[in-house]
Design goal:
about 160 residues, mainly alpha, Globin-like, 2 domains, about 75% helix, binds protoporphyrin IX containing FE
Length: about 160
């Protein structure tokens, strides 16, 4: 009887132990996947180059239809080759800034926008057009804010009045 009692105790202890291990496994799985999500680059979380291209297309369409700022882009919109180059530069810039495998070969933001007389309101309008594009493709709040966090600091180099 004493032996049986000891055996029950041992089995019970083993069961509790394995339940605990299971619980720890589940917990570490959860924390690992959370950690993994955080360490994946913004580029990957945005969906890679194909997704960035789709967002840039939509974004540029939004800008072209935005009467607050589309006059800045009149020459770009009227020339398909120039438009293609501009979109390609935007894709590379966003790809690189989000940790992707691209290399932006365009001008720095100060040089690119020098003399255009872009105002704070113009800048905010363009950001609104970008947010609209990101929302259309259901980019998550975290990713959206991270991307805006990368582009936002460029404002000082772009805005002249
Ligand atoms: C975070 C905000 C912005 C980013 C990331 C950005 C990015 C760029 C890039 C990568 C280029 C191409 C540079 C090159 O030719 O080497 C460019 C050009 C240009 N940007 Fe911006 N820009 C921003 C804001 C603005 C704003 C607010 C305006 C006007 C409302 C504007 C108007 C233009 C124009 C007109 C060009 C010349 C396009 C062409 O060459 O055909 N940008 N920008």
């Amino acid at each position: 009887m004493k032996k049986l009692f000891t055996a029950v105790l041992i089995v019970g202890a083993l069961m509790l132990g394995s339940m605990n291990v299971l619980a720890q496994d589940t917990m570490s799985d959860k924390s690992m996947s959370k950690k993994h999500m955080k360490t994946r680059s913004l580029y990957h979380r945005l969906g890679g180059k194909k997704a960035i291209k789709a967002v840039v297309d939509e974004f540029v369409n939004n800008v072209a239809g935005d009467t607050r700022i589309n006059s800045f882009f009149a020459k770009t919109a009227a020339d398909p080759k120039r438009l293609k180059k501009f979109k390609g530069l935007l894709v590379d810039q966003i790809c690189q800034a989000s940790g992707g495998p691209c290399h932006y070969k365009g001008k720095d933001m100060k040089t690119a926008h020098k003399g255009m007389g872009i105002s704070g309101a113009d800048f905010n309008a363009l950001v609104e057009d970008l947010v609209k594009a990101l929302d259309k493709f259901k980019v998550g709040e975290t990713e959206k804010n991270e991307l805006l966090g990368v582009l936002g600091p460029m404002k000082g180099d772009i805005v002249e009045k």
